[in-house]
Amino acid sequence: MKVSYFPGCTLKNKAKDLDLYAYKSAEALGVTLEEIENWQCCGGVFTTANDEVATKLSSIRALKYAGDKEQPLITVCSACHNVIKQTNYEMQTNSQFADKVNRYMANDGTYNGETQVYHYLEMLRDLVGFDTLKEKVVNTLKGKKIAAYYGCLLLRPNSVMRMDDPENPTIMEDFIRALGADAVVYAKRNECCGGYISVESPESAKRNSNAIIENAKANGAEMIITACPLCKYNLVKNGADIPVVYFTELLAEALGVKEDTNA
Amino acid sequence: MHNNKYLQEEIIRISGVNPSKCMRCGKCSATCPAYDEMEYHPHQFVNMVESGDIEPLLNSESLYKCLSCFACIDRCPRGVQPAKVVEAVRLTAIRKKGANRMTADAVPAMVDEDTPQQLLVSAFRKYTK
Ligand code: SF4
Ligand code: SF4
Ligand code: SF4
Ligand code: SF4
User: Fold this and answer.
1) How far apart are CA A163 and CA B121, in angstroms?
2) Which of A56, A234, B58, B103 is the most buried (most CB within 10 A)?
3) B83-97 tens-digit pLDDT
């Protein structure tokens, strides 16, 4: 299976692991990630105002590129995924906005949100299947107690993301179990770490992040996994004394392809 | 604290929110992770826009405390979407000439060797026009 892939700016820089392991693991599962040519940064946060057009064009170009190739669009970073899915939803549901965009991008023809967008985790669940994934595991993570940290952007707003139950999600826990490990369920897994507030008020990011780490640990977690480079940064910077790793790294380890990435 | 009809209409229009749907239950503020940092809380944004009390919001630091976590959107029992009101007021404030809150010159002091690009990109998206 071939899919279009939007890596995003952070995955090409500080979060290279997230990117590399995503490629290698997909390959091991029979999926080829085809990076979108000349993709542009999505901007990190979706601007909800309906009169904002320019800030949404980079997402629309990526969506249209995948659409023209008749491929689903896969993202790994929680933030990219959020921005691109919300933008696509706006193209589907706000005809005034879609018309403005299509006229602006005249040479590109029209686009009305036809492309299917999947987060990598959704790709594993819906296109590959967790049962298939389970069969491909060579290094089982049996006995490891792992806590999934969803944060906010993966699940919300639910009316648009449609990924999982936003208050009682299971996709990351099912992923952890497919790799043979024990999933630690804890209350704060879908609360925000503070995100970009750490540039202005590091103390408030610290408070939010600490509460998440303590809650995971109190429930027995030995490791936290995340899909978001900013979540990882905030948790690590704010005193996580258990490893915080990208879910793709864990995946690569379980699939036995981590070594040859040498990252 | 004058009633600013034009701004009120503009904020309602670009947010797409109907503030009169709010039943003042306070759930949005109760769930907001930035609550302690905010002078005006999400439900107050909704209620003050409804009454046309826009100026205090435009000048409030609260605008820059919202994390865009969308918790208030998902947890509002009336589907009001308070975060969209906060965003519309914030845009109205920073779209003014000279109102950018962050400049590129300030970046080096804010980063360490692990800072992900996403952090800066997101902060610029929220604080500047
Ligand atoms: S979410 Fe992130 S890393 Fe990804 S492109 Fe968008 S801003 Fe850049
Ligand atoms: S960085 Fe924090 S703000 Fe972002 S998705 Fe992760 S939890 Fe939310
Ligand atoms: S989106 Fe903003 S206002 Fe709403 S709960 Fe999150 S931080 Fe609070
Ligand atoms: S949760 Fe919704 S209904 Fe309740 S106060 Fe907030 S905006 Fe109003």
Assistant:
1) 25
2) A234
3) 999 999 999 998 887
